[in-house]
Amino acid sequence: xxxxxxxxxxxxxxxxxxxxxxxxxxxxxxxxxxxxxxxxxxxxxxxxxxxxxxxxxxxxxxxxxxxxxxxxxxxxxxxxxxxxxxxxxxxxxxxxxxxxxxxxxxxxxxxxxxxxxxxxxxxxxxxxxxxxxxxxxxxxxxxx
Length: 144
Hints:
Blueprint: E1 2-7, H1 10-27, H2 32-35, E2 45-51, E3 54-61, E4 63-65, E5 68-69, E6 72-76, H3 85-99, E7 104-110, H4 114-119, E8 123-124, E9 129-131, E10 134-142
Parallel strand pairs: 5-7
Antiparallel strand pairs: 1-2, 2-3, 3-6, 4-5, 7-10, 8-10, 9-10
C-alpha cells in the first residue's frame, strides 16, 4: 500500500531526513552539514511517500516568493527508483504550489537529472554551478 503525506510534523520530517541521509549523504557523499541546512526548520513542510510504513521517496517544499515554488531535496530510495516516484513527488509539490497560488516552479537540478526535469516540462534557465559539491543548473516550469 502506497500513501503520500505532506506536513511539517516531526515524524514526517524524520522520514524525510532518513531518506535524504541514505541518498544524499551515504550514496552521493554530501556532507550532513551541507544537506541539512537553514531551510530545514520546524515550519518546513515535507512530502513523503510510504510503502506501508517504509519511507521510499521524499521532497522538501520551499517557496522563493509569493508566486514561485521551489521543490528541493527530492530523492527516491535506491530499490524504488525507475518506478515514477520522483515524478510523483515533483507533481505533488507543484500541486501544493498551485494551491498556494504559485505560477512558477523552480528547481536546482543535478546536471545528470536534466533529462528527467525536461520530461516534466522544465527548461534550463542558468549556466552550470556547484551546489554541495555537485554540478547543478536552475530549471523552471510555468504552472497553469
